[in-house]
Amino acid sequence: xxxxxxxxxxxxxxxxxxxxxxxxxxxxxxx
Length: 31
Fold this sequence. Notes:
- The structure is a single chain.
- The protein is an all-alpha fold.
- Helices cover 52% and strands 0% of the residues.
- It has helices spanning 6-14, 19-25.
- The longest helix is centred in the first third of the chain and has 9 residues, at 6-14.
- It is globular and about 20 Å long.
C-alpha cells in the first residue's frame, strides 16, 4: 500500500495503536 492518507497517519500518531494495523484496519476516527 503505497497510498498513506494523512488522516490515518495523524490519528495513528495521536493514539497508542499500531500504525500499520490500525491504519489498515480502521482509517476512521471513530474507534
